[in-house]
Write a structure and sequence with these properties.
This is 4F2 cell-surface antigen heavy chain-like. Helix content is about 40%, strand content about 20%.
């Protein structure tokens, strides 16, 4: 670089005032090796070059390669779509197939405020992820006196019609359907007064009446008594009508029938959901597996209801004392169909224990805790406090287990409507598989015996290991741990729910 001094040719100018102005000097730094700036080809030059034969051929080659590549990708995508496995269409399901149902047979036992109390406990019920309540019976009748039967009138001991309407409205806002139990003589010797045909007309009127009030379904116990009458087709016809809204359900229950007889009744009655009281917990595991297979093979699982408790059967914990209640909770939640539980089953209440204990447990434990700190010297009171604390802790664990299974049931396709495949059965144990198309598979294993069992399980897509999703034995089968599937070891009175991915 060098400095160049620029000087004006005419450095002095004579101003009109007679004074002289001297122009200054400017120094500019100029690069010594400054070259000519490249401005690229002009438009005319570009057009001239682009018109040459070489560039024309190059453009054609690139254009052909582009279209061949595009067509190749399109053809590849079509091949992938055609050869990819098709997803199975989701079967038609109704609201009662989407999760468990919850029976409240005695609304006054459930809450001291009757129907109003049930409404107050809807938040609690909603936490259980239930899809519907089976309520009552709550109508007016004196035991064994058919002349006093009023199926469209609510017994004042339980509440009023306005309270039921309020319950319906709030339950519907929470996505919970209400099914009304209209079993006529629910407090008498015979549920149908030994003559179901004599009350059939009043039953039909009541079905129409309550459905028009917004009830989502009707439940009838001892279904075989009314289903064998000539009036049954007209009762059933009420529920076949649709007005474009969600389907209204006709449900029923029966006890004491064999699997074959229950299957025949389901075919004959064509109810939307039938509770059979099967499988019988007193039966060996091999027989329970047979009963499940009979009912599953002959009917759509959308019509199969599984319940081991109820007004006539008693609580689940009392009916299955030989095994932890969580074992049978797992069984009912994972069978192909709808699990139905009675109030109190979710915390393991036994016969003689009042349902109100569910609401009093926490406050009672807090009160006893405070008192125990003051009277710690009392040995008896300390033992009482320990017993209450352990009971509360145990029931909380049972309830949490129930919620976890209910959540899985409601969102996993394999558990909602997947195939049922029996893998193992013995006098004291049972294992089966639930699978749906390309969804995650679920394996259920239960052992209600007094000894440990090793199950040798075989199926075409079983992996070497599977993930624990729920377990009654968290010490040996912790949730989210991996366990061997080919030789599955299960302790006495334990159950486990495993899952593994679609292998395709």
């Amino acid at each position: 670089m060098k400095d160049v001094e620029l000087k004006e040719v005419d450095q002095e100018k004579q101003l009109m005032t007679g004074q002289t102005q001297i122009n200054g000097c400017v120094k500019v730094t100029v690069p010594e090796n400054a070259g000519v700036k490249y401005t690229g080809l002009s438009k005319d030059e570009l057009i001239k070059i682009a018109s040459t034969a070489g560039w024309v051929r190059t453009r054609w080659v690139l254009l052909v390669l582009f279209w061949f590549g595009w067509i190749g990708m399109l053809a590849g995508a079509i091949v992938i779509i055609v050869q990819a496995p098709r997803c199975k269409p989701i079967p038609e399901m109704n609201w009662w197939n989407e999760g468990p149902l919850y029976q409240i047979s005695d609304v006054n036992e459930f809450s001291e405020n009757g129907l109003k109390g049930v409404e107050e406990k809807l938040d609690y019920i909603n936490q259980m992820k239930v899809k519907g309540l089976v309520l009552g019976p709550i109508h007016t009748v004196q035991a064994d006196q058919s002349s006093t039967l009023e199926l469209t009138s609510i017994n004042p001991e339980f509440g009023s019609e306005s309270q039921l309407i309020s319950l319906l409205d709030r339950a519907h806002r929470k996505g919970i359907s209400i099914v009304l139990d209209l079993t006529p003589n629910y407090e008498g010797v015979s549920a149908w007064f030994n003559n179901a045909a004599s009350v059939a007309e009043r039953l039909k009127e009541a079905c129409v009446y309550w459905l028009n009030k917004g009830v989502d379904g009707i439940f009838l116990s001892h279904l075989n008594d009314i289903a064998n009458t000539e009036a049954w087709p007209s009762v059933q016809g009420i529920f076949n009508k649709t007005d474009g809204t969600k389907k209204r359900a006709l449900m029923g229950s029966v006890t004491g029938l064999s699997a074959d007889d229950a299957s025949h009744l389901l075919n004959q009655s064509s109810v939307d959901l039938l509770l059979t009281g099967l499988p019988d917990p007193a039966e060996p595991g091999i027989r329970q597996a047979q009963v499940i297979q009979i009912l599953y093979a002959d009917h759509l699982q959308t019509s199969l209801g599984w319940s081991l408790s109820g007004r006539t059967l008693g609580s689940l914990a009392s009916r299955t004392p030989a095994a932890p209640i969580r074992l049978y909770q797992m069984l009912l939640f994972t069978l192909p169909g709808t699990p139905v539980f009675s109030a109190g089953d979710e915390v393991g209440l036994k016969a003689g224990e009042k349902l109100e204990a569910m609401w009093d447990l926490e406050s009672q434990a807090d009160d006893d805790n405070a008192t125990a700190k003051v009277h710690f010297h009392s040995h008896i009171f300390t033992l009482l406090y320990i017993y209450i604390y352990i009971t509360l802790e145990e029931r909380t664990a049972v309830c949490d287990f129930f919620k976890a299974l209910s959540d899985l049931k409601g969102k996993e396709r394999s558990l909602l409507h997947g195939e049922y495949i029996s893998l193992h059965s013995s006098p004291t144990s049972l294992a089966f598989l639930r699978l749906w198309d390309q969804s995650e598979r679920f394996l259920v294993a239960l052992n209600w015996g007094n000894d440990s069992v090793t199950m040798t399980l075989t199926y075409s897509d079983l992996p070497a290991e599977a993930r624990v999703r729920a377990s009654t034995d968290t010490e040996n089968l912790a949730v989210d741990s991996k366990v061997s599937v080919e030789k599955l070891e299960l302790g006495p009175k334990q159950a486990v729910l495993l899952s593994y991915a679609f292998p395709g």
